[in-house]
Amino acid sequence: MSEEQRDQSAPAEQPPAGPQPEPIRFFGTTWVEHDNGYALRRAAVAAGSLAAAVIGAYLLRLAYEGLEIGNVGPFLSISVIVLFAIASSIAFAKTWESFGRRPAPSSDEAALKGLKAIGFIGSLLAYFLRSLTEAPGEKLHRAEYERAAAEYTRRRTARTGNPAARRRPKRKK
């Protein structure tokens, strides 16, 4: 028997019945049961996002010092600080909001990608704060998964037996 014939004759693995949890970045599906190093991953994500935010703030400080050395004037220096502060606060709010609900297909998320890139420190801080309590987006994914599992269970238990085999009630003549 050739390998090709063996592969065809071997039973294919059936996918698990029911809905499957959606993986979360850096966590996979460990958020479902909080297993396979979930706590360690959460600690690493919190530390990594905080470290990235600190490094980003330091780089912005160096850029500001470059503006001061270039003697561009107080208006531009203050404008840069205000721009990064506003962009960071908007990025924080939008990132925090995205952990609780999915964006609408026609929402302005695509238009805000540039603003989120400028305010990356706000996004990193939102990621850090959320990872202190749960995997970022876990609450949303858990609610969707539990809803899908309950719906699947309800659909599976509603059907009992073969409807064609059921006895019809006798009619009185």
Structural description of this entry:
There is one protein chain. Helices cover 60% and strands 0% of the residues. With 173 residues, the protein is mainly alpha-helical. It is elongated and about 105 Å long. The model has no long low-confidence stretch (mean pLDDT 83).
Which tags fit this structure?
173 residues; mainly alpha; 6 helices
**Which geometry do the CA atoms define?**
elongated
Structural class: mainly alpha
User: What letter string, H or E per element, gives the SSE order?
Assistant: HHHHHH
- The whole-number mean of residue pLDDT values reads 83
Question: Helical percent range?
Answer: 55-70%
Task: Provide a brief overview of the structure.
The protein is mainly α.
How is the secondary structure organized here?
Layout: H1 3-9, H2 38-69, H3 74-98, H4 113-118, H5 120-131, H6 138-158
